[in-house]
Amino acid sequence: MSRESVSRESMSRRSMIVAGVMSGTSADGINVALVRIDASNGGASDMASPAQAGSGKASRSKEEKRPRSAITLLGHAEYRYPSKVRQAVLSAMNSPHARVAELARLNFLLGELYADAVLAIQPRFRVKAELIGCHGQTLYHQGDAQAFLGCKIATTWQTGEGALIAARLGVPVVSDFRPADMAAGGKGAPLVPFLDYMWFRDAQVGRIVQNIGGIANLTAIPAGARTSDVLAFDTGPGNMVIDAVVDTLYSKPFDRGGKIAATGTVIEPIIQRILRRQFFRATPPKTAGREEFGREFVQEFLRACGRARKPDIVATATALTARSIADAIQAHVLRTSTSRTRGKNWRPSVRSAFQEIILSGGGARNATLVAMLAELLAPLGIVVRFSDEFGLPSDAKEAVAFAVLAYETWHQRASSVPSATGAKRAAILGKISYA
Ligand SMILES: Nc1ncnc2c1ncn2[C@@H]1O[C@H](COP(=O)(O)OP(=O)(O)O)[C@@H](O)[C@H]1O
Ligand SMILES: [Mg+2]
User: Fold this and answer.
1) What count of other Cβ atoms lies within 10 Å of the Cβ of residue 185?
2) What is the CB < 6 Å shell around ligand 1?
3) Which stretches of 15-160 are assigned E, i.e. beta strand?
4) pLDDT for 17-53, tens place per residue?
5) Which of 103, 101, 78, 99 shows the shortest CA–CA distance to 26?
6) Per DSSP, what are the bridge partners of residue 147?
7) Which of 27, 124, 249, 314 is the most exposed place for a label (fewest CB within 10 A)?
8) Nearest ligand, CA 80
9) pTM as predicted
C-alpha cells in the first residue's frame, strides 16, 4: 500500500482539523478558519454530492440527515496583506501589461504569506491543521468563453503556491479549486453554496444567503430545498466600487460603518442607468469580478457623478450595491420566469417564498448599506439577519467554506453545485500538494 493511501485512509476514519484560507477580490488580506469536521455521520460528506442529489425519496431523507454540527469552528482570524503586497496584487489584477516574472514571484510570495497566516493562527487556538484548503488570490476570472487565438476560452486564475504551503506546514494542501468546475462546463463560481446549503437550509424558512465581499453573491435556498433547488450567482459589486470611490475621494481604504454614505444623498438617475447594463439583466448563472466592476467601471462611475458632492457619490456607490442585490432578488430569485436555469426539479411555489436574507462579508459591517437593503427588502417580506447569528461569523464564512471543500476533495468527493455554477456535472475541486 502506498504512503498516500495509508495516510489518506487513516485521515478518513476520524474527525479532521482543516484550515481554510481565503483572500477575496477586495485584496484586503487573508481570512483563516480552523474547523473540525467530524467523520461520524460521514461529516461534511453527508452532504451528498450534488451530482447524487436526485429527486427520489431516499436521497431526500439522506440529505435531511446532514448535520451542520459535523463542522465545528475552532477559531478564525484575519491577517491583512502588507500594503505593498496589496498594491502589487491590485496592480496585477488591473494591469493590461503585467510582467510574467512579477506574477511568478507573486505566486510564491503569496504562498509564503498564506503559510505564515496558518502558522500564526494555530498556536492562538492551540490546534494544528491536518489539511489545508487555500483558495488563493484571484488575479483573473472570466466565467464565459470568449474568442482567443481562434478558440473560445473561459478561464480563471488563483495564485498562491500550494506546494510551498504544504512544505512549510508539513500537511497536504488543496488549492486551485475553480478550474475543475470550469472544465465541467461551469463558470467556476460561486463555490460557497456547498457550505451555505449545509449550514443554512431549513425545512420551514426560505433563505437567501448574501455575501458582500468585493463582489456580492447570493445563494437562494428555498424551504425544504434539495441541492438541485439551490440557485446562486453574483449580484454585482459588493464593496469594490465603494472602496475605490472612497479611496479616490478621501484616500481611505473603505467607508467604515457606512458613515460617509450616511451623510450623502443618492443620485438616482446614475443608479438607474447602471442597472440597465447587460450584467444586471442577464439571467443566472453569472459571475463578476474586477473585470466588470474594477478600475474602468469606477472611472466611468466617477465621470457620471461629475461635480456632485463627495458624500453623495459615496452614498450612490453604496446604493448601487444595495439596489443591485434587491433587484437581483426580485428579478432572478423571486420571479418565476422561464429562466434558463430551471432544472427539472424547479418548484416555483417553493422558490417564491423567502423570508430571510442572511448577510456575511465585510459589507455586513456597513450600517448604511445594511439599512438600505433592509428598506428595499421589507416590502418583499424579507428580513435581514447576519451569518453570526447562526454561529458562522461573517468574516469566517468563506474561509470555512474552503476548509469544507478541501475536506471533500481529500475524500475524493465532488463538491461543486451545478445549479450554482452552470456546470454539466458536479466536480471534485482543486489540486492537492503533498507535504
Ligand atoms: N467596519 C466596516 N465598515 C464598512 N465596511 C467594511 C468594514 N469592514 C470591512 N468592510 C468592507 O469589507 C471589505 C472586505 O470584505 P471581505 O468580505 O473581506 O471581501 P473579500 O472577500 O472581497 O476580501 C472591505 O474592503 C470594506 O469595504
Ligand atoms: Mg477579504
Assistant:
1) 15
2) 24-26, 28, 213-214, 239, 242-243, 254-258, 361-363, 365-366
3) 16-22, 29-37, 71-80, 131-134, 137-148, 151-159
4) 999 999 998 898 999 999 999 875 443 444 433 333 3
5) 78
6) 152
7) 124
8) 2
9) 0.88
